[in-house]
From TrEMBL:
Source species: uncultured Flavobacteriia bacterium
Keywords assigned by UniProt, alphabetized: Signal
Name assigned to this protein: Secreted protein
Signal peptide: 1-22
Amino acid sequence: MKNWVFLLLFAFVICSCGTPKASVLQKSPSVFLVSVDKKATSPMDVIDVQLSDGEQWVSGSFQYIDESGSGEAILSSKGYDSFGLLVSAPKLPFNPIKAMVSYRTEKDGIIKSILVEFDSNN
């Protein structure tokens, strides 16, 4: 029984380490940079980025960018262990405090989400 519990705990730790991590930075009143860290071998297809003040949610348009130095636009996150999402939300009717990134890890797979609180230092 102890071995079974140990294996289950080990599997949980391994799975939790594989989830992408993100942070968000407000560049201007309508432009935000979401930085995502993941395994380079793990696919991640971003579907939507939403901004919220805790009550309202607004989807922003986004573009993948290379955060490894160039800041250039990229077509997808494939092969990158970190990348950025440049999010634009013109005429935002509120001051956002969090962002939600919705993504898939396989074609037509389950949609997963990362909820990211804005850093108070931003």
